[in-house]
Amino acid sequence: MKRWLVLIFVAIVVILIVLLIPKKEGERPIFFPKEDKIKIRLFFPDEQAEYFVVEEREVEKKEKEEDIARLIIRELLKGPTNEDLYSAIPEGTKLREIYIYEDVLYVDFSPEISNNHPGGSTGEIMTIFSVVNSLCANLTQYSVQILIDGKPQETLAGHIVLYEPLAFKKDMVK
């Protein structure tokens, strides 16, 4: 009987050693959690609405790029944590849908993005490129098409044409 107990104990020790020792260099033992966070870069206008300032946040890692894009927009909608920056997306705006088709990332917002917009060409540029730059900086090469209530619109608030997909605008980043 004593011999069986010793054999069982040795077997348990061997199993634990096998499970806790990494198989290859760089591999983690199975009992340690995987990295489940990623850093994203969000673009918020500065106080003068001249440039964008990057604010980094750590968010839950997602596998699909559409899901990462949703996280990015949700973080943008929360606004900046830095008091010297401001949110360019009008209050009440909601994300309706995000999808990718032929290398274009479509972002569909509720009508509040247009209806509640304060107007002005600078404000419109800041709203549009806060969204576009934040998505393009964090995802594979896509251009971004902004939709309102499921449809392309001529403009957001009367100045910037939205019929075509837009790309990252680096000349506005501090």
Structure description:
This protein has 174 residues and is an alpha+beta fold. It has one domain (33-172). It contains four helices and six strands; from the N terminus they run αββαββααββ. The protein has helices at 2-20, 65-78, 112-115, 121-138; strands spanning 37-45, 52-60, 95-101, 104-109, 143-148, 151-152. The protein has a four-stranded mixed β-sheet. Strand 5 (143-148) and strand 6 (151-152) form a beta hairpin. Helix 2 (65-78) runs antiparallel to helix 4 (121-138). It is elongated, with a radius of gyration of 24 Å. The mean pLDDT is 89.
Strand and helix layout:
Blueprint: H1 2-20, E1 37-45, E2 52-60, H2 65-78, E3 95-101, E4 104-109, H3 112-115, H4 121-138, E5 143-148, E6 151-152
Parallel strand pairs: 4-5
Antiparallel strand pairs: 1-2, 3-4, 5-6
How is this structure best summarized?
This protein is an alpha+beta fold. The protein has one domain.
- One letter per element, helices H and strands E, the order comes to HEEHEEHHEE
Low-confidence stretches: none
Arithmetic mean pLDDT: 89
- The strands making up the biggest β-sheet line up spatially as 3-4-5-6
Number of helices: 4
